[in-house]
Amino acid sequence: MNGLRIFSGNSNLPLAQSVCSVFDLPLGKANVSSFSDGEIQLEIQENVRGMDVFIVQSTCMPGNQHMMELLIMIDAFKRASAERITAVMPYYGYARQDRKVAPRAPISAKLIADLLTTAGASRVLTIDLHAGQIQGFFNIPVDNLFAAPVFVSYFKEKYKIEDLVIVSPDAGGVERARSYAKLLGGASLAIIDKRRLRPNEAEVMNIIGDIEGKCTLIVDDMVDTAGTLCSAADALRARGAKSVSACCTHAVFSGKAVERIQNSCLEEMIITDTIPLNAEGQKLKKIKVLSIAELFAEALKRIHKNDSVSSLFRI
After folding, report:
1. Would you call 271 helix, strand, or coil by DSSP?
2. CA distance linking residue 315 with residue 100, whole number of Å
3. Which residues are bridge partners to 55 per DSSP?
4. Is residue 301 among the annotated active site residues?
């Protein structure tokens, strides 16, 4: 792995350190701090000329701060003559703003793509993009991994497949839910039909599928305020589900999300470490964190060696 250097901003240092531990490499020396007026200050403390640089940075809360850190780091490495700069974004912020939903609305996900490219990123590595078409916003390579293999390994040990129903929280997530059901050896599938009344609020209208007396597992790419998730869990319980659990790749957990999960009928909330879990969430025994560090490390190794990463996309 000569010539490989892994750096991190302040958003997800534990994940970056876990990826480095897979390679038995030290985390790159860079100090990312702020001036007294809030402007970001960066000091790269080692030579990166001609190096293959990977910057691990989730653009999670505070998203604007972490995005600026990433852009400034990319610019600095470009000016320091790094041979290639890969932005490793476990969580791609602004991904939900991928199209115009109202007159005069921005397409912020496209703006982020333009900023990353202009700053000097050579390629982007992420996982479970909220909208797959975001890859088309870039004119540089984008590798979008899937967390499904990490989740499926855990589910196979925990559940009897014949008693398990995979639940999509909305029509848009049916393909994801069907993939999970297939990977689990033919688990049943159910869909929640809901009507969204206003942003971050949804009303469950109907459940399509047989869930009575079954263990149900809601699968989604992200959970934000957890209002929709907890409403779905209540609906499944009311329709006779024996148990209700949920999993998501990106645990945004804003507002009262952790409190809602704690007070809900969910037996378990399985997440990954693309976003660091806050102190409140760490105390909640319902939440189980699975690491995607080895998956990212394998992708980094293949990118560094110019090997194919296609097999990592299969779910």
Report:
1. strand
2. 29
3. 7, 87
4. no
CA–CA dist 80, 5 (Å, integer): 13
> Rounded to whole angstroms, what are the CA distances from 141 to 14, 117, 135, 264?
26, 10, 8, 41
Distance of alpha carbon 304 from alpha carbon 95, whole angstroms: 26
Six-digit token string for 241: 């589900």
In angstroms, rounded to a whole number, what is the distance separating the alpha carbons of residues 16 and 77?
17
Tell me: the pLDDT tens digits for 31-57? 999 999 999 999 999 999 999 999 999
The residue with tokens 């993939």 is 179
Q: How many residues belong to the chain?
A: 315
When computed from its CA atoms, the radius of gyration of the chain, rounded to whole angstroms, is: 20
Asked whether the whole model's pTM tops 0.90, one would answer yes
Q: What is the pLDDT of residues 250-298, one digit of tens each?
A: 999 999 999 999 999 999 999 999 999 998 999 999 999 999 999 999 9
Catalytically annotated residue among 110, 194, 242, 288: 194
